[in-house]
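JOB MANIFEST
job_type = single_chain_structure
chain_count = 1
residues = 331
[input]
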Amino acid sequence: MDLPLFYFLVLGFCIFMYVCLDGFDLGIGILYPWFDKPGERDHLMLSISHVWDGNETWLVMGGALLYGIFPAAYAGLLSILYIPLMLMLFSLIFRGVAFEYRFKSDRSRPYWDFAFSAGSAVAAFCQGLVLGTIVQGIPEGSEAMSSLHWITPFTIFTGFAVMAGYAMLAACYLYMKSRGVIQAHAAKLAKVLLIMVMIAMAVVSIWTVLTQPEIKARWFSDSHFLFLAPLPIFCAIAAFVSWKDLHNHRHESRPFWCGILLFLLGLAGLVVSVFPYLIPRQLTLWQAASPTTSLQFLLPGVCIFIPVICIYTLWGYRVFAGKVEDYQEGY
């Protein structure tokens, strides 16, 4: 068995689970300013009160895997992306504190609302900065260490694109979990955000192909595009189905799952573009991997705990399935 490749797939699975699950609850915070009528923000908080902290399990698991399995990539990425990653972590902490204290506050509740919304937005934006930095490539040696290479027009654009993507997921989630006025408002927001996400995916794809010769060759040399064409085609189909089913009460969950599919296809496109590199054009997954004895030692833990996390995550969502009722005690 090729253990580095196996762990690479496991790491990709953890990233996908985090982006999908924590993505929509970060998106709830991003959407906060657009829900300001009495009771609406309480409803938004109730919709994720049972899952928000469990969703972040996947961030911890992904970070631990990167540290233990690919230490060279962990050291290289953290040294370059230290500022955005620390901003993201502080934002997540600030957001979590705001979530806890909001339910116990009265006069100070508007401040905690702002903290929750700002923490969600900053965390999502920083994740977009990290994504953009990896896609655009990282200079080798001291040049990367001494410059703010993670702040460029491209990374700033991907930062806002990730915010839009998370907000779209959140709007589709609210459409699935809500009724009445909130559901209708979520549907309107989801349509606007879906257009923004599709435009962002197209811009990032074109920008990358025009500025990265290696990625352009990966997609368009020989007959590669014939085999890779299903990725953008399925993106367009998923977006069309999601748009069509918003306001269709017979399929209220379908827009959310189509949003998940868009993120899966985007991750697949990223893997196609950069594989086998963890740090583009510098460090492959085999070069970054720990010694074989370390990979073998960690294998039982990964094979036990990943399924356990999946089981209790699925069980938690199953227990709290259905519409959010505002009369529930909640948190």
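[summary]
The chain has one domain: 3-327.
The chain has 16 helices and two strands.
exit_status = 0
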